[in-house]
Design brief:
Layout: H1 40-58, H2 70-90, H3 93-102, H4 112-123, E1 126-130, H5 136-144, E2 147-151, H6 168-175, H7 182-197, H8 201-216, E3 219-222, E4 225-228, H9 231-234, H10 239-245, E5 250-253, H11 256-259, E6 272-276, H12 279-294
Parallel strand pairs: 1-2, 3-6, 5-6
Antiparallel strand pairs: 3-4
Bound molecules: fe (ii) ion (FE2).
Length: 303
């Protein structure tokens, strides 16, 4: 495990037979090799937050207010300024504009409840407290209804630049800012509704891969430069420079027919990325893909 290790995403592994109805665990499970294993204080804190956020999610209470500890604040203050420097150099304009408008502080960990209120006002999106990674179908079920599940725990302090599962730094600095953009919110909601409506596992898999190589790990062309679009890259100090600079990364034009046939391994640095020509183009591609997979007679996008 090292600082360049990637952030793992929701709902893997990819197996068409298993992606339709996986279940959400009802107790905290830290995977083998997790840096927090053996740290009783950390595990207790994670368990408490797991129970609180799960209860708020299931009872539809909205994000709970969290009293963050000095250690959690220390980690936030260590990681987020480094990310911000990298964002200024490499993030795409949709992300930078939205992040600037939202004004997430590098000093204090934001409360999801107040971020959710801002989003609701701007784009009609809201944040759903998530106890941890959610099954794909559960995750996109919320998105279909304009809710974005967001964790409220912070990674372990021994490896501040690495988390084996999506944590609040990944969610708040990767996913939340672009939700301030109306067009981005519409794209996400479309994918959420399509993924929820799809019954054929291969259609679900196609939508999952489309999301992975765009929303999570997409690059985008802007004024002749390749910029970072995906939240999985934007929330990792290792992945940002790796994605745009490393000679070990294959960057190919985003061709939807190829993307939905391409597998990925979420447990390592992403060395196979696709470059989106423009955001408007991506949105049109998503609409065309949904129409091809589901057909207009079976699926209607509810704005
Ligand atoms: Fe993510």
């Amino acid at each position: 495990m090292n600082d360049d290790a990637p952030i793992v995403e929701y709902g893997e592994p990819i197996d068409p037979k298993s992606i339709i109805e996986p279940t959400d665990p009802d107790t905290l499970e830290l995977e083998q090799g997790h840096p927090g294993l053996g740290d009783d204080v950390y595990v207790r804190r994670r368990s408490d937050l797991f129970a609180l956020c799960r209860q708020h999610r299931l009872d539809q209470l909205g994000p709970p207010l969290i009293d963050y500890t000095a250690e959690e604040t220390r980690i936030w203050r260590e990681v987020t300024p480094k990310l911000h420097e990298l964002h200024l150099q490499h993030a795409c304009s949709i992300y930078l504009e939205a992040k600037n408008t939202l004004g997430i502080s590098s000093r204090e960990i934001p409360q999801l409840r107040s971020l959710s209120g801002r989003l609701q006002h701007e784009t009609g999106m809201h944040l759903v407290p998530a106890e941890g990674p959610l099954a794909y179908r559960t995750f996109y079920g919320y998105i279909a209804k304009r809710g974005f599940p967001v964790t409220q725990f912070i990674r372990h302090g021994s490896h501040p630049e690495f988390t084996p599962e999506p944590d609040m730094i990944h969610d708040c600095l990767g996913h939340v800012p672009p939700l301030m953009n109306h067009d981005y919110a519409e794209l996400l909601t479309l994918i959420g509704q399509a993924a929820t409506a799809a019954r054929d596992p291969l259609h679900v898999l196609a939508l999952k891969r489309f999301s992975w190589f765009s929303i999570e790990f997409g690059l985008i062309e802007e004024n002749g430069a390749t910029k970072v679009f995906g939240a999985g890259i934007l929330s990792s100090t290792g992945e940002i420079p790796f994605s745009v600079r490393s000679a070990d990364v294959v960057r190919r034009p985003f061709v939807t027919g190829e993307v939905i046939e391409t597998d990925y391994d979420p447990s390592r640095m992403q060395d196979h990325l696709f470059v989106i020509p423009s955001f408007a183009w991506l949105r049109k591609e998503a609409e065309d893909l949904v129409e091809r997979l589901l057909g207009t007679d079976q699926f209607t996008f509810k704005r």
